[in-house]
Specification:
Blueprint: E1 2-5, E2 8-11, H1 17-30, E3 51-56, E4 60-62, E5 67-73, E6 82-86, E7 89-91, E8 93-96, E9 100-104, E10 110-119, E11 129-134, E12 137-140, E13 147-154, E14 160-166, E15 169-176, E16 182-186, E17 194-197, E18 203-206, E19 211-215, E20 222-226, E21 236-239, E22 245-248, E23 250-257, E24 263-278, E25 281-288, E26 291-299, E27 305-313, H2 314-318, E28 322-327, E29 333-337, E30 343-346, E31 352-354, E32 364-369, E33 374-379, E34 388-393
């Protein structure tokens, strides 16, 4: 408490300062309870450090796709007690024993990294193993934000031919080498919905009219054949090993155009999105009766289509639409769709599953086989992603007259 006097303030609290100091010293000394107990346990022993002997697949795996098996010693049989690092990316262990760990490679592609294992209770990491996480797909062709991709095709050398639209205007057909170098193949004021290379070396094309066109490098378009039905719109083509061009669209018929330009029509009313050939069968993806399905027609010895057979119900599988088809030499059918996991793989027994679930995301509307099991896919423009071309590692070889899988 302070009083005012002629000589200034006088605070009674000052009289108590010595007492407070004594109390503080007393409290500090009185609280000393001696030395705290040590957390060191002299009887505790660490688990043996883990050891990596081998990794499968050897040397590399597809990021986010491949199951990886690590063989060694001193692992925990509890999956959560094993911490596996690919560089700085940790992967969840799904199965474990003292000598093996099973996990999916993390979805972080890196060309060079060190693989290590830590076990809870062990003092040190395992030895480090050099490893690679390969991307399951890469962007291809340097497609710009202002470009849109329509028809694509490939040739025997692995070049990719692309019908581009830039700033909403057609800019012709571009050839892209396997190294990604672009050059103009033909100039055109039309965009082409589908392309394919013929046995004669011409590039064949359709563009939502009733005619089939073809090009040579630097040439103007040549009308190869015209469908008599004036209501026809051709949007997709496939060329078989005999040089016949199969063509379709949202029509009441599928068309065959022979090398001598003879046109044959086969009744099949459907909004057909894509065609593919395997052996003596024509595969068709389209909408019919409100459902998206894939059918196949046997091509008989006279080159004529027989009755269709349903192969796969895309609507029932994913609730989405089939937009693109590709088939491997083993008979696996790849279906491009607009689903979240856009590619369905159907095995020869008719069982379907998503390709690389959670890794691919953009809808796919065009396919073309490249070398060494690469599958090129044209992707749709979305609200958050530009259109583009991706090159997918399938580890299977593409079928057809232009298969270049060696």
């Amino acid at each position: 408490m302070c009083n005012v006097s002629p000589s200034g303030f006088r605070c009674r609290a000052l009289h108590y300062l010595p007492l407070i100091g004594v109390l503080c010293i007393s409290l500090l000394s009185g609280c000393d309870s001696g030395t705290a107990p040590s957390i060191y346990d002299p009887d505790r022993t660490s688990l043996p450090d883990p050891i990596i002997d081998s990794v499968a697949p050897d040397g590399s795996a597809l990021a986010g796709v491949d199951m990886v098996t690590i063989t060694g010693n001193n692992f925990s049989s509890q999956p959560t007690e094993n911490l596996v690092y690919f560089g700085d990316a940790r992967s969840e262990v799904t199965g474990a024993s003292p000598t093996q760990l099973h996990l999916v490679a993390p979805n972080k592609p890196l060309p060079e990294l060190m693989l290590r294992v830590s076990v809870i209770g062990a003092e040190n990491f395992s030895n480090s193993v050099p490893y690679k996480l390969e991307p399951p797909f890469v962007e291809f062709g340097d497609v710009r934000d202002f470009e849109n991709v329509y028809g694509i095709a490939t040739d025997m050398e692995g070049n990719v031919y692309v019908s581009f639209v830039a700033h909403d205007l057609p800019v012709g057909i571009t050839r892209i080498t396997p190294d990604g170098e672009r050059s103009e193949f033909v100039s055109s004021r039309f965009f082409w919905t589908d392309l394919d290379i013929g046995l004669d070396g011409y590039l064949y094309a359709v563009r939502s009219v009733r005619a089939l066109f073809r090009f040579q490098e630097g040439s103007s378009q040549e009308v190869f054949a015209v469908i008599p039905n004036t209501a026809t719109k051709l949007t997709t083509i496939a060329i078989d090993e005999n040089g016949r061009v199969w063509a379709a669209g949202n029509n009441s018929e599928i068309y065959s155009i022979s090398p001598d330009k003879t046109v044959s029509a086969y009744g099949f009313e459907s909004d057909i999105r894509d065609l593919a050939l395997f052996g003596n069968h024509l595969y068709v993806a389209g909408l019919r009766g409100g459902s998206s399905k894939v059918w196949r027609f046997r091509i008989n010895s006279d080159g004529e289509l027989e009755s269709p057979e349903e192969v796969f119900d895309v609507s029932a599988f994913s609730g989405r639409e089939a937009l693109a088809l590709a088939i491997t030499t083993s008979g696996h059918l790849y279906i491009g769709t607009d689903a979240d996991d856009p590619i369905i793989v159907v095995d020869p027994d008719g069982k379907g599953e998503a390709l690389y679930p959670g890794v691919l995301s953009q809808s796919v509307r065009q396919f073309a086989w490249g070398p060494l099991g690469y599958l090129f896919a044209a992707t749709n423009r979305t609200g958050i992603s530009a259109a583009g071309i991706i090159r997918i590692t399938t580890r299977r070889l593409g079928s057809g007259k232009l298969s270049i899988g060696t």
